[in-house]
Amino acid sequence: MMAKAKKLNVGDLESLEQKSETGDPEAETTLALAYHSGVLLKQNDAEALRLLRKAADRGWMAAEESLGIFLEGGIGVERPEPAEAIKWYEKAALQGSMDAATNMALMYANGIGVGKDAIQAVKWFHRAADGGDATGQYNLALMYLRGEGVPHDYKEVIRWLTAAADQNLVAAILSLADLFLQPPTSEVPADLGKAIKYYEKAADLGNAGAQTTLGTIFARGLTGKPDYDLAVKWYQKAAEQGDPDGQLGMGVSYATGHGVPEDFEEARRLLMAAADRGQTEAQYDFAIMCEEGKGAPADLEAAARYYQLAADRGMVKAQYRYGLLLSKDRESRSSRIAAYKWLTLAEGSIKESSAVMSDLRKSLNEQELAEAEREADNWRSAHKAAAR
Hints:
Elements: H1 2-6, H2 13-21, H3 25-37, H4 45-57, H5 61-73, H6 82-94, H7 98-110, H8 118-130, H9 134-146, H10 154-165, H11 170-181, H12 192-204, H13 208-219, H14 228-240, H15 244-256, H16 264-276, H17 280-292, H18 300-312, H19 316-327, H20 333-347, H21 352-361, H22 366-382, H23 384-387
Helix pairs in contact: 2-3, 3-4, 4-5, 5-6, 6-7, 7-8, 8-9, 9-10, 10-11, 11-12, 12-13, 13-14, 14-15, 15-16, 16-17, 17-18, 18-19, 19-20, 20-21, 20-22
């Protein structure tokens, strides 16, 4: 009904208000949703809520469902009223609203307005799923996947994910693709062909993550040998959406000349764009290009900045390269101390760090070495997740 309300124009307002005044629940609900969305130049959530209550009290299913949404979200009221919302969802669900059944199931699953109750969540997800609601099917699959309210059952997981995927629910499509690419259990055999099929389905629906994953599958030759043309096709689609992983893939493609002519300037542009969006691998690759002067004159200041971004996220090879770069600045005490800190952090994984640290120790006194080691310990404490 929201779609219907959004198609209204100002000329429809008078007749709709007249019907609403006669107690027509469909008109009341439509007018309420129009007031909420502001399509009739009258944005008024309090009046929308009043109209929904009138229609819901007459047992109009769409009004009951909408009232539940308003109350759960705190629309037209001082604060959310989830306990009241679930009452209206149940009324609508029992009349056949699959959306209301799904919404109520989510409230039970997350303990919103009621105590967490996985069994009740499964009951209502099942009702919605059996009725063909894709969101209900997807969430029911997740309950079977996690074993919440039902036993773990991967056959049921695949069954309901497939049902939702057949309705083009992207989350379900991606879950199926991931499941077949890297099964979490031997109960589900890996099937690269099925994984690619579902990634392509999501990619064709415009999902940038699926496009990037396809690019990586073909670039790494998971199908038997690399197919850089196909990799570039999918990376490009993701990059055009501003996806940092897609930009990374295209940047590396231009830097290596895989699937496209080698072009360091374009590689730098794409890698920098991804790096500035927080893509750690892109930060590292862009720093190397800045340090080595590929595509533009060498820029050690920029290289240091981007190495540090990746290093601070726990990328060991960036910690090593950053430490190595800093170690070359023998005029700066702070640079030498920082170099020793980052090399200390990288030493456990990159053996070349030890030789550079040994050379650095010749230019650092005991107090400076202690400071560097203390800073390394402080970094580890503050970045436990990254260090792992």
